[in-house]
Write the structure tokens for this entry.
Amino acid sequence: MKQSILDLQTKLQEVLGEEVVASKIALDELTIELKPETAFANFLKIRDDLGFEQLIDITAVDYLDFGEANWETMSAPNKGFSRGVFDFAEDENEIDPNAMDRRYAAIYHLLSVSNNVRLRVKVYPDSTAMPVVDSVIDIWNVANWFEREAFDMYGVLFKGHPDLRRILTDYGFVGHPLRKDFPLQGTVETRYDAEKGRVIYEPVSIENRVNVPRVIRKNKEAPSDV
């Protein structure tokens, strides 16, 4: 383990104290978690007191069904890739995804050029139904388009952003494509209509196909004559 990472972990604890909810070193990378209500103030300290003058990226993570990937289980779950192929009946006892605690996380990748160290910061919004965190544009101006992308793809709202619009999908697009419960098959397609002079929506004209990875499970008996 690099000594510089250990020193950074110690320095962060000294500067932020109990504001650091969690701190973990893995693969010579330090990841910390901050409270959403005080994240902005702590990001200021991270920039000014710890020398992280550069924001590399902002993204998000949807932890819905985290660790329950189809290819890691011994039985086929009714989720993941399967939901795009089979029409499973809804489980009455299934937990409402919007009622989950800590479903979404905003992820910040920071670089200290002067100290040659990197830092990953996680901030979990208080609400899953409407995940909101503070914008960091006033700290790192480059965050503008990063926050718009995280909003577009995951639906995380950045409070204080001057122009929080979609950046990758169409303005009339419904939903957020990188959420784990986003449908894998669409029902409409868009194209530009030269006669109308605008983009129009139409029913999907091609056959829907979802590529499902082949999964070999140990609970399936192998053919006797091979």
Observations:
- Strands lie at 20-26, 29-34, 54-62, 104-112, 117-123, 132-134, 157-159, 188-193, 198-203.
- The longest strand covers residues 54-62.
- Residues 178 and 196 are 32 Å apart (CA to CA).
